[in-house]
Design goal:
It is found in: Nucleus. With 312 residues, the chain is of the alpha/beta class. The protein folds into 2 domains: 86 residues, no CATH class; 158 residues, Ribonuclease H-like superfamily/Ribonuclease H (Nucleotidyltransferase, domain 5). The chain has 8 helices and 10 strands.
């Protein structure tokens, strides 16, 4: 800690500074318009600190050869002034920008794109899904399905289809979705795509990031016990906040995705590979949850039986 108090010495306005350090106190006083005053430390300065007596000015006369502690004090002053300058709101913003720049530089060094793990194109027990949306309705405030992709546990594409929305497209959102008007030429009817996807995911574990958005766009539901959402899995969250898929991919898979237009194939693979990394722990935690729920159910049943026997 450091503290400052104004003192007057021989008609001059001085500032008395007090610095805390290991092994005692170090203090100094000087006139900003003159050369540095002598630096003293010890009981004399500490005794007169509150009273601001004759020694409050610390240096009773200007010392052309400052105390050896002066160099140490000077270095402390430099560090303290730099700290106070950096502690301003603007300084904090600057530091945040530097940190974000370093993070972006780290991401920029990562390779881009995800490839399949093998040539296996079979319908595996675990599937990953990702959808891209376009804006429909007045001012494109509503989202509608425009493309859906399913990959297996090896990352190979099982189904990838453009979809013609039920409503008129107001905004293709090409910058994010990658959907363009020419994609709608060969797009399939929504109900046909919905039926195909429903048949493929039935009885399978479904992996994705923010799965509720994809299922809502497809107008489908899936058993909660068979869904694995990387945005809802506790170890992958940041406190109560969910994390973006591209951040998880950069941290866990060490690849960069979603740099410009989103690719549903790449996003589905990222979700699947993240799940594969945490599969053992994830599945074990789900089994433990089911076991706890069953125990609670058994306890409630036993309690009801006991209450019924007591009434009789």
């Amino acid at each position: 800690m450091r503290s400052c108090r104004e003192a007057h010495f021989r008609g001059r306005s001085l500032e008395v500074w007090k610095f805390g350090r290991e092994g005692g106190e170090l203090a100094a006083a000087w006139d900003w318009k003159a050369s540095p005053w002598r630096v003293e430390s010890g009981e004399g300065l500490e005794r007169d600190w509150r009273g601001m007596g004759k020694q409050a000015a610390v240096g009773r006369s200007w010392n052309p050869n400052p105390n050896p502690n002066w160099a140490q004090l000077q270095s402390k002053l430099r560090t303290c002034t730099s700290c106070t300058a950096n502690d301003s709101v603007l300084g904090k913003r600057k530091r945040k920008r530097k940190d974000s720049c370093s993070d972006s530089d780290a991401v920029a060094d990562l390779p881009s794109g995800l490839n399949p793990l093998s040539h296996d194109t079979s319908l595996t027990k675990v599937l990953a899904i990702d959808c891209e949306m376009v804006g429909v309705g007045f001012q494109a405030t509503k989202s509608a399905l425009a493309r859906v992709t399913l990959v297996n546990s090896c990352g190979n594409v099982l189904y990838d289809q453009y979809v013609r929305p039920l409503e008129h497209i107001s905004d293709y959102r090409t910058r994010i979705s990658g959907i363009r008007p020419n994609h709608m030429i060969k797009a399939k009817d929504f109900w046909a795509v919905q039926q195909t996807v429903a048949d493929l995911i039935k009885g399978h574990i479904l992996v994705g990031h923010a799965l509720h958005h994809d299922l809502k766009a497809l107008l489908l539901s899936h058993p909660k016990s068979d869904t694995r959402d990387t945005s809802e899995y506790e170890p992958l969250r940041r406190g109560s906040k969910t994390r973006a898929l591209k951040d998880l991919a950069a941290e866990i898979l060490r690849v960069k995705i979603q740099q410009k237009e989103h690719c549903p194939v790449e996003d589905a693979r990222a979700a699947m590979y993240i799940y594969n990394k945490h599969k053992k722990v994830w599945e074990k935690s789900l089994k433990d949850q089911v076991r706890r729920k069953n125990k609670l159910k058994d306890k409630k049943k036993k309690k009801k039986r006991i209450d019924a026997d007591l009434k009789i």
